[in-house]
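User: hey, got a sec? need Protein-arginine kinase folded
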Amino acid sequence: MSLQRFINQALSPWMSQEGPDSDIVLSSRVRLARNLKDIVFPTLASGDDLEQVVELMKESIVNRSFNPNLGQFELIKMMDLEPIDKRVLVEKHLISPHLADDAEQGAVILSENEEVSIMVNEEDHVRIQCLFPGLQLSQALQVANAIDDWIEERVDFAFDEKRGYLTSCPTNVGTGLRASAMVHLPALILTNQMNKIIPAINQLGLVVRGIYGEGSQAQGNIFQISNQITLGMSEEDIVKDLESVVAQVIAQERSARDMLVRSSSIQLEDKVWRSYGTLANSRIIPSTEASRCLSDVRLGIDLGFIQNVSRSILSELMILTQPGFLQRFAGKRLAPEERDVRRATLIRERLKLEKDSMGE
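Assistant: Yep! Here you go:
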């Protein structure tokens, strides 16, 4: 399979789009946790209980019309997937590592454009997730709430008048809402400001995590900023507070970029082009080095140092160079050393495709 065809088939359609503040905010995500009334929650449920949940969700969603823009929904059971395929879904942020690794009777229901992902039998019976490019948390919440209402026409969710929606983990009780923005913050790292910003964000009831959420590390200067409070506030207020904080982080990142350009433009431009040269010429490159260089190149594109390379290349290559995608493209399992070689080859070929498409 050619690289271009693989890219077209592998990436979610929304990934190639840009949204508000896309120079810094790569994506917005809203997730609603729900459980079905009168069925034991997944942490204690029997196999029969879990299978019942899958069948109920299949009847409630698949082959039903919701929104033409989303297309049809498809249910995929985890037990029917190879480990590499599960890994690919994690790398695309369509399912959680927990669903991939620990939920044998779990499933995911995907919209045709992969903007909506509904995890079944993860930590909760149902987790509705909506992904949008750029800073579009309110829009993602609107779609998630509409799907929530649509599903609730067919099933009853576990709900308490005082506590709100009931979930397996107490930290999700109430709205069941987790909203997050994935942000690219290279200038705040280069100017050593992140160590001050993270504690300030935490004091506001928000949390800063790595690229795959809880327990993951930041890669390529990419972080997730998300809410921690789910009880005692409305969904709209939670999202509004998060949007406000993210807007401040965006302003600080832009200010830091301006300062770097004014104070050390030639050094920054040299750093960017050295990273581009590494990506364009390396024959072996580990994931950490690739992530760092991709972050530098994305910054160079945003600042105008690098012309005729699309901004979406960072988001695209950060996903395509992950272990699952590399093995999917290779059509076989790869040892870590083999992945480093394949990663370098894929990046070189992708940059060449970009040049060819620009007529260079």
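Quick note: The chain has two domains: 1-174, 264-358. Let me know if you need anything else on Protein-arginine kinase.
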